Amino acid sequence: MKHLKPHGGACNILIITILQRDLRDHGPMIRVDNPFAGCLHKTSMSGRTFKWMALLLYGLCFVPGALRAQEAQSRTQNAQSARDLLRRQMEVQLRELEAPGQPSDETDLGAQILVQRKPKPWSLTLSSDIGEMWTSNVLLADRGKQSDFAITHNDAAVFSYQFTDKFTASLNYRYSVYRYNRVIVQNFDAHNAGISLNYNLPLDINLYSGGQWTSIYSRPIRDTVYEEGDMNIGASKVFPLNFADWLRDRSGVFVGYQTDLRIASPKDFDKVELSPYAGFFYQVNPQLVLQTFYRWQYQKYQNSDRRDFNNSMSTSLAYTPYEWLTLGCFVGYTDNDSIGNANRTYTVFNTGANVRLSWKF
């Protein structure tokens, strides 16, 4: 990776605020943009477990990319925090169970067996979304906070291939645009591409790893101000909730852990992140999903004495009247305590909504 020389003045502000979180976003995880992306095959999971996994990722994927993008500017959410963080993790478990052959009615030819064609092992998902967000602290500053509105837009493509009933690999690309109303020094375009690997362990524990590359282009400066390579590994587990009728088959809690190694340019932002997380999801009805997410994160910068302790919380609501259309809204709060750089201690509240179109092949 080439070394990018930081510019002076406004660019320094942009670099500092942009580099608090990556753009993968969403989804989750992130950091797959389609909640049901991946190949459809029979797995070792039960039908109920599959349904819970689908509901979880469905909620996570639609925490708007606006919040995650501010993390890319500022390393906060995601929502592409919740959505991108678990998007990669759950992908391997989102397989539609292959229905066995079912006997037909008796005919003159005797009992017939209807055999379902085996689904193809790959999928391609294209998506595009546009949204509006409001942030209480656009520069993620400890003092002199500035609030602002921003218009966000993302175009994405994800190709997934299921090698076995337990192992899936995916390639993803996303182009993002963020335009602020007043603080235009923050306006940027971003490219993000990567690969994710998912393996379903016994007890439905999902093991995942991957790599992502991010490049951020400042519109005011008309130059690339930041590049980053991210290598990650983690695991997650969903626990369905069955102790009440209104929770059964439609809700659950999830827990997980992820480690990231980020190699950046400028080199001042090289760091290691340790991130345990947890959350809750609930399917209000077949089209409406509610999800909450919490993440604690320790960040150790490799070229300085700086250490950050980050707490992020978010709640999202996603309404999908059609398979190709999703309407989403979210609220999120982040508190960052920085040791070694007092200027990076901050709190921020974000809220917004978006409209997303997706096509699966």
Question: How are the elements arranged and paired?
Answer:
Blueprint: H1 10-18, H2 47-61, H3 65-74, H4 82-90, E1 102-103, E2 113-114, E3 122-135, E4 148-162, E5 167-180, E6 188-201, E7 205-218, E8 223-240, E9 251-265, E10 271-285, E11 288-301, E12 307-322, E13 325-339, E14 346-360
Antiparallel strand pairs: 1-2, 3-4, 3-14, 4-5, 5-6, 6-7, 7-8, 8-9, 9-10, 10-11, 11-12, 12-13, 13-14
Helix pairs in contact: 1-3, 2-4
Give a brief outline of the structure.
With 361 residues, the chain is mainly beta. The protein is built from four helices and 14 strands.
Tell me which CATH architecture applies here.
Beta Barrel
The pLDDT mean sits at 77
Count the E strands: 14
Predict the CATH topology.
Answer: Porin
CATH class designation? Mainly Beta
Percent in strands:
over 45%
Q: Percentage of helical residues?
A: 10-25%
What gyration radius follows from the Cα positions, in whole Å? Answer: 21 Å
Number of domains: 1
For the biggest β-sheet, the strand order reads: 3-4-5-6-7-8-9-10-11-12-13-14
